Amino acid sequence: MPRIALEPRFQVEHLSVLDSEGNLDTALEPKLSADELKSLYRAMVLGRRLDERMVRLQRQGRIGTFAPIKGQEASQMGTAFTLRRADWMVPSFREIAAMIWRGWPIEKLLLFYAGHVEGGRPADDQHDLPITIPVSTQLPHAVGLAYAAQYRGDDVVVMAYFGDGATSEGDFHEAMNFAGVWHVPVVFVCQNNQWAISVPLKKQTHSRTIAQKALAYGLPGVQVDGNDVLAVYAAAREAVDRARAGDGPTLIECVTYRLGFHTTADDPSKYRSEEEVTMWEKKDPLTRFRAYLEQRNLLESDIESRVDEEIAAAVQRFEATPPADPLTMFDHAYAELPPDLEAQRAEMAEREAAGPPRVGEPTPLPPRATPMRGQRLTRR
Ligand SMILES: Cc1ncc(C[n+]2csc(CCOP(=O)(O)OP(=O)(O)O)c2C)c(N)n1
Ligand SMILES: [Mg+2]
């Protein structure tokens, strides 16, 4: 019996354009105008500065937990930059730079992280899905959107974001499979930042790349230096153009690094080394792009201060909004609340009506409070 190579075409490319000093491989340089390059850089700086400001706001108790993007600005902006307004952007939970680029007002995003329901609701005319915390669940939705666009003949592309950890979820594989079978206009953007909370990539997959997972589903997969915004843009441009032309989906793996913590509730020093972080800091996507723009004489000197002013004005507008009502947390998961949640809601309403406890006084628990399923209620 002969052995026949059925798929000799399989290959996975790695794409990079800029080296860590900002030097360029001119053959691969994407065609971007000076204005486009400047606005790309501005969006990345805005993402970085907003991220840093949000960490401080969280530390001061002014917003709740959030997932910083530091280090991933090129992966997000190089991809989101290729979309038209009518295209769909499907985020996970670590895409603030891309979301702001897509038109989310900064103060609205801050409202989301301060517990306001409206903060998470896209504007009616916006083709973006809301932030999705359950890992990978946004991917079948993205394929559904692309399937609907194809069915209706709409000229739109869907771009969906997720992490390396998300590729271990069934939803990722189901989404990839149906995207391939239906040949829909979707671009999967995996921000492979090397960690899924404390789980390193090597415990996530035995594959050499994430990009190669596309091949099993009959789609092209490309790995790109995710800290090189020009390479990310070039890969995304190709994928988006292909999807728009009716030539189906693509998986892009952006090899990047989460320079900060998983969320503001995490301490990465418990599971990764200083040396690893220092090594990746040398590949900072902003430093590299800045060096390139400097060489081309396109760097605007006051960009940081202008971006900071924009953020400060948005923070002021955000803080002018009265605090969210905690009772709204019961509003959107069930059409009819189960009895235990109904009891918790009533308890919270009673506490709200009683006002805050006086200093030194323990918070009284109303007698009818019921424990959550499987939980004992303890009085402290
Ligand atoms: C279905 C599901 N399981 C577990 C979690 C808890 N969780 C939140 S983020 C995360 C890790 C995700 O890692 P990755 O996909 O690499 O994205 P990253 O956080 O690195 O951006 C986990 C396990 C969750 N939100 N949803
Ligand atoms: Mg990750």
Describe the structure concisely.
With 380 residues, this protein is an alpha/beta fold.
Task: From the structure above, extract its key features.
380 residues, alpha/beta, Rossmann fold, 2 domains, six-stranded parallel sheet, 13 helices, globular, binds thiamine diphosphate, binds magnesium ion
Explain the layout of strands and helices.
Layout: E1 13-15, H1 34-59, H2 73-80, E2 88-90, H3 96-101, H4 106-113, H5 138-152, E3 158-163, H6 170-182, E4 186-192, E5 195-196, E6 199-200, H7 201-204, H8 213-216, E7 221-225, H9 229-244, E8 250-255, H10 274-281, H11 285-295, H12 303-319, H13 339-354
Parallel strand pairs: 1-7, 2-3, 3-4, 4-8, 7-8
Antiparallel strand pairs: 5-6
- Kindly report how far apart the N and C termini lie: 75 Å
How do the helices and strands follow one another from N- to C-terminus? EHHEHHHEHEEEHHEHEHHHH
The top-level CATH class of the largest domain is: Alpha Beta
Structural class: alpha/beta
Spatial strand order of the main sheet: 1-7-8-4-3-2
Question: Runs with pLDDT <50, length 5+?
Answer: 374-380
Name the overall outline.
globular
Mean of all residue-level pLDDT scores: 93
Radius of gyration: 23 Å
Helix content: 40-55%
CATH superfamily of the largest domain: Thiamin diphosphate (ThDP)-binding fold, Pyr/PP domains
Helical run tally: 13
Count of all domains = 2
Q: Which ions, cofactors or small ligands are bound in this entry?
A: thiamine diphosphate, magnesium ion
Main pleated sheet: 6 strands, parallel
**Oligomeric state of the chains in view:** single chain
Count of beta strands:
8
